[in-house]
Write a structure and sequence with these properties.
With 94 residues, this protein is an alpha+beta fold. It has two helices and four strands; from the N terminus they run H-E-H-E-E-E. The strands form two sheets. It has a two-stranded parallel sheet with strand order 1-2. The protein has a two-stranded antiparallel ribbon with strand order 3-4. Helix 1 runs parallel beside helix 2. The two termini are 20 Å apart.
């Protein structure tokens, strides 16, 4: 089932609304695949992930990460994720 893209200038009321709408879209995309687990990152991502998990009827967990500073600039952060974490939508993650 194809889902229309969200306009790039769309502003959400809050993170809960954004997560609810994202969950609805993901439920349509994953209708046959399902989701094994939804991960939320602290500092904003957990409320979004909670709504996604609710929409997908999937367990929610929190992935605590540490920001890795970039040399010469304190405000810039860099890092990478562990390859062991499988994206829930691998066909879209490419």
């Amino acid at each position: 089932m194809a889902v229309a893209p969200v306009p790039s200038d769309r502003v959400f009321a809050d993170r809960v609304e954004a997560g609810r709408l994202l969950g609805e879209r993901m439920r349509a995309e994953l209708a046959t695949d399902g989701a094994d687990l939804v991960l939320g990152l602290p500092r904003g991502g957990v409320p979004i992930a909670a709504e996604v998990a609710r929409a997908l009827d999937a367990p929610l967990d929190v992935l605590v990460v540490r920001k890795l500073g970039a040399p010469a600039t304190r405000s810039t952060r860099s890092g990478r994720s562990d390859r062991a974490v499988r994206p829930c939508c691998p066909r879209r993650a490419r």
